[in-house]
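Section 4.2 – Deliverable D4.2 (structural model, holo form)

The reporting period included a commitment to supply a predicted holo structure for the target in complex with iron/sulfur cluster. Inputs used:
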Amino acid sequence: MVANVTLTIDGIRITVPKGSTVLEAAEKAGIFIPTFCHDPELSKPGACRICVVEIPGMRNLPASCVTEAMEGMVVYSASPAVIEARKTNLELLLANHPEDCLTCNKNGDCRLQEYAYYYGVKYGAFKGEKHRYPLEDDNPFIVRDMNKCILCGKCVRMCEEVQGNNVLNFAFRGFNALVTPAMNSKYSDTEISNCVFCGNCISVCPVGALSEKDMLGKARRWEVKKVTTTCPYCGVGCQFDLNVKDNKVLGVTSTDGDVNGRALCVKGRFGYGFIHHPDRLTTPLIKKDGKFVEATWTEAIKLVAEKLGDIKAKDGPDAIGILSSARVTNEENYLMNKLARAVIGTNNIDHCARL
Amino acid sequence: MTNSIQEIADADFILATGTNTFDAHPVIGIQVKKAVAKGAVLAVVDPRLTDSAKLAEYHLQIKPGTDIALLNGFANVIIEEGLYNKTFVEERTEDFDAFKETVAKYTPDYVSEVTGVSADLIREAARGYAKAKNSTILYTMGITQHVCGTHNVFSTTNLALLTGHIGKESSGVNPLRGQNNVQGACDMGALPVVFPGYQPVAVEANRQKFAVAWGVEKMPDKPGLTVGELIESAGNSIKALYIMGENPVMSDPDADQVLHELESLDFLVVQDIFLTETAQFADVVLPAASFAEKDGTFSNTERRVQLVRKAIEPIGDSKPDWEIICLISDAMGYPMNYASPEEIMSEISSVTPSYGGINYERLEQGSLQWPCPNADHPGTKFLHKDKFVRGLGKFQAVEHIPPNEIPDEEYQLVLSTGRRRYHYHTGTMTQRTGALEVFYPEEYLEISSADAEKFGICDGDKVKVTSRRGQVEVAAQVSERVTPGLVFTSFQYPDVPINRVTNPARDPIAKIPEYKVCAVKVEKVS
Amino acid sequence: MANVILTINGKEIVVKAGTTVLDAAQEAGFFIPTFCHDPLNPGFGACRICVVEIKGARTLVASCCTEVAHGMVVETESPAVVEARKTIIELLLANHPADCLTCDKNGDCRLQDYAYRYDIRGSSFRGEKHNYPIDDSNPYIIRDMNKCILCGRCVRTCEQVQDRQVINFAFRGFNTKVAPAMDTELAESDCVSCARCLVVCPVGALSYKNLAGKARAYEIRKEPVTCPFCDAGCRFDLNYKGEKVIGVTAKESGEGRPLCLKGRLGLELLYVDKPLTPMLKKDDRFVEVSWAEVLGMDNVLKKLIELKSN
Ligand code: SF4
Ligand code: SF4
Ligand code: SF4
Ligand code: SF4
Ligand code: SF4
Ligand code: SF4
Ligand code: FES
Ligand code: FES
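Output (structure tokens):
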């Protein structure tokens, strides 16, 4: 049995398993505490300090994401001192942040923006020197805008602890601190960076520093409908969200899949472009004199049914073979097997599992 | 897979054989890396120095096609040194003695000669596998795409039986399936000898059951033909083929022959989302909807059934495959009236015991791993817990079989084919994404520097790869990923139709062609 | 009325004579941006964001006040058109605070929408900026003239109601601004807080005080209601965040409906969990008053109690 502790947050008594953090306890009690660097799946650096709370008896304001909940503890999650500290934290971040929400693709789903709004913090409280890093967009998958990076380090930890590729790390100090692949290389220098373009770093970035290149400029976050589905490529069966606007798939973002969590590979995350490719077949085709001619469904189906019927009558059902597919759904494979066995009357059905 | 994907992370020893996991199954690769980070030992059996091999503690760089010898060598060491699980062998297996006798001659020294791997490395890796608390074996096409593919699989199973590394969490034998729904296609009876749920058509009671369920008089009892046989018989006993979502012209060995065979059919229907190389030969092409345009389910490599959800309307006048099949069936006089894939699933679960408890309502709450026999069953994480399907686990004494085609004077090199991380299968989809093919636009042939020198080839040179069956041209990449004597490329680029070169020789049991070994010569194109 | 056949972006279209090019294009499913155009009060033609290219015309024309003609050939997104729109947006942004971060209009702002569509970064054009104080003297409306793009829609909708004409353009050039008479604060003007101007403002220059900082536009779900308090039957939106109504906002004032403060406050009392205490102007100063007083008549309150108990 795990022992429990009971503490009081903002006057609400809450019981959690021993070893829980104050942040976890607050979440359980439905109390909002902002976080930047914390992620439940990753190690906890306790670095950004936006999650501070007030605990009488403790010196300073402790970071709730790394403070263990203790029996009898009293916590204030939004005392004036706490609010003051968070505001200053945000002001400092904004002092060195481009004023770019106007066209930023993260607008509407950005923690920095969300918290600034929540705490009523505007640009310009501190006039700071701003970075002028060039945009890194030389690969077809991921765009990095390090001017927007708030150095939370989640991408670093995601790549190291989940993806296992150790591409990113902190470099330089102070104002020049930067998250970057080895030797200040780019993602696309794969020999040095070791990046495989899984894009798993994007899935944790709380701001607009990392984005899917193909989704830039296509839709604002609030216009997009997300549909959770299963990857059409390999047999791992990762799940992800298709991002849809106006009957178009604009991109793929992580969901919490049963197999994969938020992790995906380059094919699953960036391989959706075939859906709207101009080469897609859009109408039935019938070959006449060696050339394909567009046909209606009625014509095409009639022809197929007649031909298969004739061959069955003349040469027997076993003169017909069916190749079903490892690409289509279970339901479709089931119907193909039924069509072969019950309708045509042959066991000549297989698929390319072996290839 | 006998285990679940996430169990891999908790294994103490991983034997990855014939799987370039990081490229072909990247998200499983994540679990492997996680295990290694937690201290697991990784042993990789692969003729190439892949990324997984680089991470491995033991890289057993065997000559292509010598897997059985190597695994028998493992067994030899484990038995000789008394490292096998005697209780497990006694209580849960049979035919151990015959097996022991067979592997007796596979001493590390002999195996070293056959495989090219040092005897010490064989001993160490074998000990590691046997002694670890939880050992798991991962394999893919590197094991199955050989004339002795089935025997290769047997020899992996033998190791697991010998050590009892099966039937528990993080411990088992795990084939990683290549395509998203290979598992499901097999589960659903898209196979010549079984109904859905692997119920053999040879059994009268099964035929009865399905005849009743489907409302027809009787079911055919003659076993059907496999893919390869279907195509080979085209024009002879097979007059018509209906191909849905497959591209045998690109994926089958000896592609020129396949073309010829498809052309000799009386009638070919191809149903696909693109006008594939195969569809070009069709009499009728039916435009199908992509996965984004329909509802349904896929079953992944760990038997997990998951929902596919419709995100957009079908493109143009295309239709979901299930609707098209229904239309054809209707027109052939057997009405199929399904309002939705959900309805089809309820029929599936009524005739497929392992899917008995699977329905969309439950899947909306989360995925389910079969066997899931009834609505209260939570699904099954790992198989063979207390007993094997057939009762006792059977040792299959198998001998090393050399590849069907070995290098000779004229064809001095071994060609192996596989997959690239940025592409998928025959490239029908990944060549049209606007991203993947941009980053990885061209295929190349990996060749060792020793061979490059020998044949006067420089990095980037256009070369001609010729086998007894055909030839293709491709750029050479001088690479340390391959050992001297071996060249490698993928089958994912239409510009490099490598299956004109590969060998259609098949494993006599599973009928899988030998993609991993054929003899070729490589010359610079002037 | 006779029909006219014209071609827009290569597509042949039949519309009634007298239709504007803007309406014809929108009917055919083509997008044209607008700032100053008010469908309920058309024909102003000042902002020029809606320009299109018409074959044979010497310059680009404003589609919102150009009538279709037979055989007209229109391009709504030609390079010249896009170029012109980009310049307009750049000029507007040059004199616009970079405040989307916390602006209450973020997510429902035309300037932002079009900047995104035409990929204009806020910083690409730096000009002199206004530094007007924010006018929050009125208890219901906040005016931030730094964000005003001078489209004039507020002016025109206000003057549509007899005897109101509370606001108008004042000054010239860079200093042009929309202001009550004598450039006073709104509280000192004749403004009746009807919120007609808030309905039409395309940017964040005018906003509801009671909603400030409460939710982003994309977090709000709107459900229309009709005001039950008088026969005009004005329409309002209940603004939901999650399951809660956080405020009531006015909808467009079509068919001669006036919109009034009383109606909006009455609905807030009816639907909002904890409506703010209403304020009324007495002796030129806003003071807190009772609900009975602000809603004017006892019978309205009675009606309200009836409605609420149903
Ligand atoms: S990252 Fe966030 S705060 Fe920064 S510009 Fe983008 S939306 Fe605004
Ligand atoms: S794309 Fe993947 S590999 Fe590359 S940096 Fe991001 S997480 Fe690491
Ligand atoms: S790029 Fe994003 S995730 Fe990475 S440190 Fe910067 S803000 Fe954090
Ligand atoms: S995302 Fe990658 S690893 Fe996952 S199922 Fe798709 S192809 Fe396989
Ligand atoms: S306040 Fe709004 S409606 Fe009025 S002129 Fe300015 S932008 Fe236009
Ligand atoms: S008015 Fe529009 S463009 Fe201006 S700050 Fe507000 S949201 Fe941004
Ligand atoms: S979220 Fe707690 S310190 Fe960053
Ligand atoms: S919308 Fe036409 S000129 Fe302003």
